[in-house]
Amino acid sequence: MKLPTCTSCHYQFTWKETLLTSLKFTRILKCPKCGKNLYPTPKSRTKGTLLIAIPIVAASFISSMIGADAAVRITAIILAGILSVLLSPYYYEYIEEDKPLW
Questions:
Q1: Are 91 and 44 within 8 A, CB to CB?
Q2: Which end of the chain, N or C, is less surrounded by CB atoms within 10 Å?
Q3: How many Cα atoms within 13 Å fall on the side-chain side of residue 4?
Q4: All structural domains of the chain with their residue ranges
């Protein structure tokens, strides 16, 4: 796992820069070194959504299967969500043109 780099000048973005961009609606990552606008690839957007959703659903399913009470289930879901979001900068890839998801 590594953080994304600018396709133009090869600047490696920080974890914080990538995380803040992935949480925004526009998801445009601007390179501080060369000023290029970079867009997430359709593959990384799909991967990002799945890698956030699957742990949350899995935590919910597993905690209900083992008969955990509501507080444990909610805690497991919240922790899975937080962990997924914190790791999200490592699986985003960026390109210079915005491509549609489909």
A1: yes
A2: C
A3: 27
A4: 13-93
Burial of 95 (0-12, 13-18, 19+ CB in 10 A): middle
Distance, CA of 29 to CA of 21 (rounded, Å): 6
Six token digits for residue 77: 């879901």
pLDDT tens, residue by residue, 8-64: 999 999 999 999 988 887 788 999 999 999 999 999 888 888 888 888 888 888 888
Q: Where are the alpha helices (DSSP H) in 24-94?
A: 42-65, 70-87
Report the Cα 30 to chain-centroid distance in Å: 17
pLDDT-derived band at 6, boundaries 50, 70, 90: very high
> Residue 25 CB: number of other CB atoms within 10 A?
5
Residue found under tokens 């990384």: 44
